Amino acid sequence: MTKYPLTLTQYIDGKVDHGNGQEHEITNPFDNSSICKLKSASKEEVDFAIENAHATFKSSKWQKMLGRERGELLSNLARIVKRDVEKFAHLESIDTGIPIRETRMEISTSALHFDYFAGHAGKIEGSFQDLGARFNYMIREPYGVIGQIVPWNTPFKLMARGFAAAFACGNTMVIKPSIVAPLSILALAEALDEAGFPKGSVNIITGSGRVTGKQIVEHKLIKKIIFTGGGEGGYEILQQTARNVTPSVLELGGKGPIIVTENIDFDETIDGVLTAAFARKAEVCFAGTRLFLSHQMHDKFIERLSEQAQKIPMGDPLDEKTQLGPLMTKKRVEDISKIVDQSKNEGVNIVCGGFKPTDKNLSKGNFYAPTIATNISHNSHMAQEEIFGPVLSVFKYDDLDDAVEKSNDSDFGLASYVWSNDIRQAHDLAHRIESGNVFINAYGYQSEIPFGGYKKSGVGREHGSEAMLEYTQSKSITVGMGRFQS
User: Fold this and answer.
1) pLDDT (0 to 100) of residue 40
2) Residues 222 and 262 occupy one common structural domain
3) What's the pLDDT at 1?
4) In terms of Cα–Cα distance, which of 172, 148, 192 is closest to 61?
5) Residues 236 and 262 placed together within one structural domain of the fold
């Protein structure tokens, strides 16, 4: 149940349609109760959504729209989202399990994304070169229809960051939220109408990734893909887009290292590590999941860290006191339990957590206690694979060279963390870590900061001015000024 009316429709060409595809049940991770049932878009509806967005992009009205006019639309949308933050946050909490205190921040951050890229929409610049008898100028143009496939973890913010930049650049959009957590994005339809977005400029359709998502990715009118999700999904997209040579922006996961040096503010660092490791249930790609400590400080730090981890309040995501909500699905709990149990058999020491709570108010939900593990082989599953849940693996290092080497011994390179009171030392570590993003004594990204990964963590960059390059393509125009000479 929800106190806000649910938008359970496809949104195509400014109109709503209940969908003619397969029916899916949306459940609340807190107690696995049914929230609602939702029909996917049919194959014909997906095709129409893409063709309609393409027709809108090609229309003279769209082609003549100035960047500052698109910026005004995004500013309008930001204002509406700020006004309705409680509605969007509530809907996101009930179908993802993220605590309301965090979804409020996610929705507010999304509004900042809209505002930030509204300011960039009218500032897309090219270049000029004087070549003597010729001159050349370069302009940047939008791609066309961009397909955005949004995951179930922090869906509204992940939708907003890609959509805001791509729309600001002059592209039209077809957005597919996750079939298990679509509510906050479906509620965006009313806001788009109120903000004055042209019909067909943003279409929202629902369906599974393997059916609806695949159809979007392979459609010849889709000119670029935005995808955030698991590695296997990203690898499939790369194969599917090969036929049409469709470029993509992919964020595919992480195994974030946290290097803690010995010259730290102890209490502040404990708080920082807890946040990086367990915020949003650690169902985020940029979580800090591998903690590196010196032999000298290891025992003291882990004792304090585990004490604080066991105090993290778990409960109803709509309760203001809750800091750790339920995982997305029962299967997520089962998968993490198997990994932890197998690790125990391999000699891993579970300092705290490592179980599904049996408390009466938690037993029906998809909860897993914050877990800290030590004595881990660096080549084990727990050390190398993304667990995507509240499990922190701890390793000892001999010196900082050893810490960097172990941090870089990973297929991933999305977000990394350094805690140090020696700023020169911290900068040195940041430069040596193989990661698209390094946070020194900090956690979390924002609109202005370019975000993306190294290695198997993905390709492309979102946020910041670099995003404007991702969603435009350059066109070089050369003009001969004198008589033509071969």
Assistant:
1) 94
2) no
3) 53
4) 172
5) no
